[in-house]
Amino acid sequence: MTGALSDGAGSSRFSHYGAQLLVARAQALLQAQFEPLFRATNNLGSLRTRLVEDLRGELRELASAGINFSEEERKKFGLPPRTEQAQVQCDLQDLAATLLVVAINGGRFVALHIGDGVIGIEHLLKSGPRTKPLSVPDNGEFINETRFITSQDAEEYIRVFRGHLDTRTRNIIGFVLMSDGPEVSLYKRTTNEMAQACSKLLNAGRELPEEVMNEQLAVTLKEVIAPRTHDDCSIVLIARSAAPTPVGSGMTC
């Protein structure tokens, strides 16, 4: 099972198309490269470089082939009408986006992250579930800056995390991936802690039917989290049931 989230750069005109492509391709690549990534030792650096090059190559192909924009978008961005130019080419940097992805396979996980946003990991402790940061925001030198798959040095900054879900000292029962919008409410930078609400959301994902969970998650994002931020709000939940069979949910607003 995989879950992925990508947040387009606010300064890039067509980053939502880049984010959409990255979510689909990153999940496929991580599934295909799960074993090499999980077992990698001295060759991890070359695997990271290959992943970034593959994803950047996909974005470059999209930019070169062009995008079939809607009429509304053509008016918004001052693009030629479809009758004159069906596919509109763009620059690679127009598609800049972050990437957070987690794959689970045979009691193991691999996670990738570049840019801002947070990947949280939920442990089952004697005192109950607790969600901790696995990968925190990378904002570079300034809080309002970050790195993207399109960044020239992305292969140096993409982070890889690997592990077993169950060991003698821990049981991992969930993952939460979020963009920088929900981060304001669900992650405390000053103390490097996840809000208790993360475990509540994951638990709801275990107990509720997917359709009901998605409806409640949409309401939470729109009415509770979105008013506290000016950024887009996207969140992906991977909750491990008692069985343990992963179940997932995701939402963007």
From TrEMBL:
Any one Pfam family match given in the protein's UniProt record, by short name: PP2C_2
Domain of life: Bacteria
Annotated ranges, domain PPM-type phosphatase: 4-221
InterPro entries assigned to the protein according to its UniProt record, in alphabetical order: PPM-type-like_dom_sf, PPM-type_phosphatase-like_dom
Protein name: PP2C family serine/threonine-protein phosphatase
Species per Swiss-Prot/TrEMBL record: Leucobacter alluvii
